[in-house]
Amino acid sequence: MAHVYKNGPDQIVLADDTVTTRADGYVKLRIPEHGKAIETTTPISIPSLLKRSAIEFADYTALAAKINGKWEKITYQQYLEQVRTCAKAFLSLGLERRHSVCILGFNSPEWFIADLGAIFAGGIAVGIYTTNSAEACLYCAESSEANIIVVEDEKQLDKIISIRPRLKHLKAIVQYTGEPNNSDVISWKRLMEIGSKEPDDLLEESLKRIAVNECCTLVYTSGTVGKPKAVMLSHDNLTWDALAITERVTIERGNEVLISYLPLSHVAAQILDIYVAISVGASVYFADKDAFKGTLVHTLQEVRPTKFLAVPRVWEKIYEKMMQTASQNGYLKKCIASWAKSHALQYHLDRIKGIKSKSWGYSLATTIIFSKVREALGLSRCNLHASAAAPLAPELKKYFLSVDIPIMDVYGMSEASGGHTICIDGATNLETIGMSIPGTKSKLFTTEHDQKELCMYGRHVFMGYLNSPDNTAEAIDSEGWLHTGDLGNIDDHGFVYITGRLKELLITAGGENISPVAIEQLVKTELPHISNAFLVGDRRKFLSILLTFKTEVDPETGTPLNKLESSVQNWLKQLGCPATTVTEVLQAGPDSKLLDALKEGIDRVNQQATSNAQRIQKLAVLPSDFSVATGELGPTLKVKRRVVEQKYAEIIENLYK
């Protein structure tokens, strides 16, 4: 019988290895004997971190969500109490130690409380992408041995009901918005009533058995290649990474306001939201899940966050709205805006070069123009504008610099608790993903194809993939370095750059290795009305590119529509080939001015090619944009290259006839 350790929740159980693939395993923590303060900081469990913040920031707002048009707030003291109540309810419903609570829904206070409640009760918290099919939910729930599944609404509940007979470990389903129509499903209100009636004995016993070097969270990878893998994260992975990030970013304890808006429930970033906020006593305001329909700016205006993290598509949407507004200005306003933007861009480009001087023009523009722009966007108090989950085009960064909104890249992965590098004001440029956060290390590993793969090391590196020793051994080498699968380089200043994906490498018929991502990004920069560019040419004589136009999206399903975005329509009018739909574009024929414009953009990309093999020879416009709903994108917005190649195989073959 296994020994029961009862000195938790901050105990460290003796372990022989830094890696495990067992749900009941422990790992040796990567704490150096000597090093920076952040490297050697004393490990702390998630329950202790929340308890500490509940004492230090007891009456500060922890979570806020808009209910029936009014912001309802929870203090840190109430946050701790509700997490404990939720944990007691989970235990009462039969949650077993190291079995999971799966959470399927948009980010909300209930999502955060359920996640922490599972951990407090000695279980494992598992976030499931809201875009997952019923079968994908089944895979996550069964492989994590879920005892409880928490869903947002009927739409997500229907998925679980359809697979319930196949869920061998399931004991209860909870719905956290609205009243369940199914009598076997527990409402959030009822869940909290159950927990409030339970004594503290079982919960305290569970807390005593917790160790900081055991698994408390699983994050399933998006499964762009093969089945999703379950990333095992310990208390130390999560709490240490959050503390290390706050070392890099200037954060005023107890006085920060964060907006939580992740339109596809990007689980790794969502989890990091929880622990970064708790570690500094920040207030998290939840944006409406329909933010893409236009409510996000209203939320920003009301909340006026001090930190704002968004996926690139959010920044693109803001940019498109700003460009649309600017196009309606008269001649004089356009001249003033152009003058102001030139001064702001020069100021920020100088800062990137280490020149810290303000021109009178920039100071004046900041006072009379940019302050109003930031106020209109709800960013008047924001001192960190960040982008994560996918690359943000350098030209888009340049535009935001010109309106005095410097956007900083954040880079990480599920296997490193969400964060590894970050840009900060005064230490960034247009191409970098930033510097390694304090206490972590980055290095380049030379692959068999002489490519440079980015590797990372630190206490944030995950424990292993659940029940998958082979995949774990492939990801973490014998020295503890995590191989990211990203190609990159590191300059003399310590800035890290991503140049592509190792598994997306194209090898031409001539034997040249080509990373498609960098070329695709250049195409999107030269042709800003293109939504997605997809390079093909693996084992082919030359490269070709598939292009999709920016179109309107069905707000309910996320499916791209046939109608082109207004900015694309305006561009086509200027070219002399008006079209309002993708169908009309495809009917334009090979002699259209549009095709000439696309070829000119590709020619500009080819001028930057480092060899003839990297030049694009042919192009094709696809009948629809990529999306999660139609299968070309994964939940984290990464392109599923195999899906695209199979879906458009005929178009690709025609390019090579």
From TrEMBL:
Q: What InterPro entries does its record include?
A: AMP-dep_synth/lig_dom (IPR000873), ANL_N_sf (IPR042099)
User: Which keywords fit this entry according to its UniProt record?
Assistant: Fatty acid metabolism, Ligase, Lipid metabolism
Q: Which GO terms describe its molecular function?
A: long-chain fatty acid-CoA ligase activity
E.C. numbers: 6.2.1.3
Provide the Gene Ontology terms for cellular component: endoplasmic reticulum; membrane
Pfam families, sorted = AMP-binding (PF00501), AMP-binding_C_3 (PF23562)
Domain annotation AMP-dependent synthetase/ligase: ranges = 51-466
**Stretch forming the signal peptide:** none
Query: Which PANTHER family does this entry report, sorted A to Z?
Result: AMP-DEPENDENT SYNTHETASE_LIGASE DOMAIN-CONTAINING PROTEIN, LONG-CHAIN-FATTY-ACID--COA LIGASE
Could you tell me what this protein is called?
A: long-chain-fatty-acid--CoA ligase
- Write down the species: Exocentrus adspersus
